[in-house]
Amino acid sequence: MSILTFPERGKWGKSAWRGNCSGHIYRALFEQYRPGVFVDPMVGSGTSVEVAAEMGIEAFGLDLHSGFNILRDSIVQAVGKEADMVFSHPPYHDMIVYSGQVWGLPHQDDLSRCVNDEDFLEKLQVALLNQREATKPGGMYGLLIGDLRRDGQYKSYQADCIARMPKAELASLVIKAQHNCVSDSKQYSKMKHMRIMHEYIILWSKPKGAAISVLADLATMAQQQAIALKATWKAVVRQALVSLGGKASLEAIYSKIADAAPDRLVGNENWQSKVRQTLQMIGKPIERGVWSIQ
Ligand SMILES: C[S@@+](CC[C@H](N)C(=O)[O-])C[C@H]1O[C@@H](n2cnc3c(N)ncnc32)[C@H](O)[C@@H]1O
Fold this sequence. Notes:
Order of helices and strands: EHEHEHEHEEEHEEHEHHHEE
CATH superfamily of the largest domain: Vaccinia Virus protein VP39
Oligomer: single chain
CATH class of the largest domain: Alpha Beta
Bound molecules: S-adenosylmethionine
Radius of gyration: 23 Å
Shape: elongated
Number of domains: 2
CATH architecture of the largest domain: 3-Layer(aba) Sandwich
Distance between the termini: 45 Å
Number of strands: 12
Strand order of the largest sheet: 1-8-9-5-4-2-3
């Protein structure tokens, strides 16, 4: 089932640990994938490993609170072997701050203490690559992650995670209903948008013939991102032409894009040459300095 809902968290882990997850979720994952060896590198109060132990699965729980730092330490080295499943439940950016609040002193590498979204997503990608490396070829890696709305903006961390990992390895996306959030007590009658009541379980499978070198895999990801960027340029330039009536001078195209583009793009001197390169692909010169859609 690609929708999971468990109002009870069960007896596993600590109910007082903020942002913990129902043990039934892990049970459902283990029943589906039957891992022999399981690792949770952000184990929190230990819910996942308690469920695993009960099901006879060899399980390893690591966490910053007990000295393992997913941004600096290799999971596979900490555990001593690869696992069939490496599944984490990271903080959802700073929705709940862990170090210094749920445990111990503030820690600079705590994923709940990132300075902004980009910082959080960059670190989350490092964490996922670390998990991937610790997964046996043919095994599964993934995470439980929630989205959040801040200052009227919807931040879809699940979408960012999917975009930053190898497309060909995405294996499953499951919706988990959220129960008993602290925000349940707030007044929702005047909310502009629907209240977020779900999280996501994202699972990737590490291919059997995964590249011998991790770097080769990363090169594939960089290529995937370069292709997406090229496609974005094509879409932006095409839309500028469409909006200018199907044909326009280079100057008009530049100014249309500059109007709509964020400052960061226009501040980059290369952007006009990117537009010209893209026009060679999707446009047709109809007279000197004037382009139409191909
Ligand atoms: C959402 S909680 C996990 C809750 C767990 N699923 C449970 O049921 O108790 C996220 C955990 O990630 C840990 N964490 C944050 N940054 C980390 C890092 N750099 N390395 C390892 N663990 C980290 C936090 O200490 C926290 O325990």
